Amino acid sequence: MCGVLGICGFEDVSGELVNGLVSIQHRGQDAAGVLTYSDGRFRMHKGAGHVSQVFRKVDLSKLEGNVGLGHVRYATIGSTEAMDAQPFAVNYPFGIAMVHNGNVINFVRLREILNNDYHRMVETSNDVELLLYTFATYLQEKDLMHVTADDLFETVGFVQEHVKGAYSCITYIKGKGFLAFTDPYGIRPLIMGKKETEKGTKYIFTSETAVFDYLGYEYIRDLEAGEAVYIDLKNQLHTRIIKRKRSAFCVFEYIYFAREDSVFRSRLVASERVRMGKAMAARVREAGIKPDIIIDVPNSAYFFASALAEKMDIPYRRGLAKNRFVGRSFITPSEELRKRVVRLKLNPIRDIINGRKVAVVDDSIVRGTTSRHIVHMLKEYGATEVYFVSASPAVKYPCIYGIDMSVKKELIAANNTVEEIAESLGCEKVIYQSLEGLRELYRDLPICDACFSGEYPTGITQEILDQIESEKLKSDRA
Fold this sequence. Notes:
This protein has helices spanning about 15-25, 50-55, 105-115, 125-140, 150-160, 210-215, 250-255, 270-285, 300-310, 335-345, 350-355, 370-380, 420-425, 435-440, 450-455, 460-475, and strands at about 5-10, 30-40, 40-50, 65-75, 90, 95-105, 165-175, 175-180, 190-195, 200-205, 220, 225-230, 235-240, 250, 265, 265-270, 295, 320, 345-350, 355-360, 385-390, 430, 445-450. The chain is of the alpha+beta class. It has two domains: about 5-250, Aminohydrolase, N-terminal nucleophile (Ntn) domain (Glutamine Phosphoribosylpyrophosphate, subunit 1, domain 1, 4-Layer Sandwich); about 260-455, 3-Layer(aba) Sandwich (Rossmann fold). β5 (about 90) and β6 form a beta hairpin.
């Protein structure tokens, strides 16, 4: 999972790109980059680290341009080195630059085809290189002197046909215009907005609507599954749904990944978490527990916990203090680092915890590392009993679409019963949202819940699952 941003307009966009990336920094902490176009060439700066680190000493006047792309990276597969940071660009058949969010699942076969059949050397472990080369390889067969919107849409169709997995892409093509497109299932978000200026309409595409609030853009709509939007050099908008399968939006965006003030498919993330929290009340009652207080794991679990407490008429308390200068432990790239981050990030408030039966609510339980440390700390600070409540169903299957849980043996629920998980975490009881309950909340919005159900919208083979797991383990060792 990453954060993407693209802006095209009539004035310099470099400052907006950098500031916009800061607002979606939570989507990727490994690397950041910006590319702009002006005076017939691309100008790019990227590197490892947070946006503030990468651009701390950068003179933005050297990135001047009226069109640009930005990216924050969270490496689910591949290295976290600067060479894997996005954007990526090629110079033939045109100057083409691209950023993407998601995960390509047939990367082994694509590398072979690009290397052997089209003589394109894939140099990095970043999926955007595969998407970019596939796009460029098909486009170069067109009449390059007269490339039309239909040609570009046809090229997107070729990518959608041959690149399997989840991807939301933003592309700039020198001398042709700006292009954004999604995979045929619309698994990853891509949202379009605009800003009216004296010179004309500026368009923006990004992963979350929170960017619009920071930069002063107006929301237009979410891109549909399999859709492409092309903005030509006259600033004319062309849209087409090219290859659409069934929509399968990643429900983990609502559960964990997105900011609570962002909106997807006309649904505010905060409100969705309130709905999930209230739905958990029935599961907690079924478990027969009677906590004295309900607390949350900051920050994504606040709305789950407060809504659950309200529904059950049990006091909600903020029982864990968070160090806001520490990053998200879930997307920290190694097990050892995750352990360190949890201790640095969270600290129980003794007077609230001591002597009480505590129900602690988190968005999910994936590996159990964070949950185990939280339980240990709560008991260390005097909790008499701890009940761990997961707002999501049990994560039993690898995510192959861009969330860092692609190794099945690391998923605690894939290999243990609920009772065994409680014993492993050191708590009195573990309570999960049911898959049926989650699906009931999304009857009117087709979602991807493969990590809970094992039902992958794109289809999957054991060979591909093994390849993804092998690649992940290889990158962890690197």
